[in-house]
Design brief:
With about 100 residues, the protein is α+β, with helices and mostly antiparallel strands. It contains 4 helices and 5 strands. Strands 1, 2, 3, 4 and 5 form a 5-stranded mixed sheet that branches. The chain is globular. The two termini are about 20 Å apart.
Length: about 100
Amino acid sequence: MNEYLKQKVDEQLGGDASLFDEFWERIPNLSAVLRSFNSDSNWLHWNRKTLDGWYCVANPVAGFGVYYQERGHREQATHFDEERAAIRFAINASVFNIG
């Protein structure tokens, strides 16, 4: 996923990651595309697991939680009502600074 995003930023945004929000209009079903990169080797995970890294997971009640987990210790989750805001926060924390 990291390489995919970096490549798309270079190709479609001229390397300017601060324009990340434009991807929502340029890449159909962006959230589904990103969630398809659900590999244990990625630093950003989309489902609860026991691996170290960042997580962006749907809350069973409402919204989405983004948190960091390392060696079984899970940090306090940041809650988002909208998936788009959660994904933006998670990518900013785990892949590259998008401002």
